[in-house]
Amino acid sequence: MTDATESSAQPVRVRSVHLSYGHLNVLRGVSLDIHAAEGVVLLGANGSGKSTLLRTLNGLAQPQSGEIEIAGQSVINARGAALRAIRQRMGYVFQQFNLVSQLTAFQNVLFGVLGARPLGVLRCLTSTATAVDRDYAMACLERVGMADRAEHRPAELSGGQQQRVAIARMLMQQPALVIADEPIASLDPRGGREVLDLLWGIVREDNLAMLCTLHQLDLARHYADRIVGIKDGVTAIDCAANEVDNAGLSDLYAEAALS
Ligand SMILES: Nc1ncnc2c1ncn2[C@@H]1O[C@H](COP(=O)(O)OP(=O)(O)OP(=O)(O)O)[C@@H](O)[C@H]1O
User: Fold this and answer.
1) In a domain, 157, yes or no
2) Alpha carbon of 4 to ligand 1 centroid (Å)
3) ABC transporter domain: which residues (predicted)?
């Protein structure tokens, strides 16, 4: 496949994915599409398999059957350089921020791109990153309003500030697809809204595709283009955010029947 075809390919295409952990059938035929510049919120009760589904997208969890394509590239059975190329397209924002505690905010952002290169950690620590990378890291910090905290370590930052640095680190990767796994679960309501405004604002401005798990239905409706809900291992809801009905959402959180 040519680069031009790859870049125009659908960011995420998941078909009939089945994944079990031993006897626990977590995903029993999940399908999901994310189109270019589309923001999708993934809903589902605790333990319904949202994080597992996210982990299948970058090959960290291996389904027993089904198809997964990221930008037209098959993830299942991808190894080595092919898997690394798929992962480089994806930027992550996690519930627990996952910043390196010994590194400053600036170094953590640099790590977003250097972590995948030879001697990447050393370059972050010894300031041997190129001027281009350093300038871009600072621009990413500026974009999330954290340039004045560039030399602070994570322990010196609030949760909301740490998540801003994590968003800058994600931007440093210049991803085509953003995966955000409960990005506000560790923040208070006001801080959470600020982080979601920032994250979704960047995604919209840069025309990125995003898959974001959330537990707040009002926020899902507010930010998403489309809402996908999983229950009992299958895609129970898949519709435009302004079309999702309350009964469907309540049913999503009614007692699950995983076995
Ligand atoms: N590596 C693993 N080995 C065995 N079981 C696992 C593993 N990872 C997840 N599970 C189980 O799979 C089920 C789905 O977990 P998952 O974390 O995907 O759910 P979730 O929808 O993200 O939940 P939450 O909303 O609580 O974060 C759970 O019952 C969990 O205990």
Assistant:
1) yes
2) 37
3) 12-257
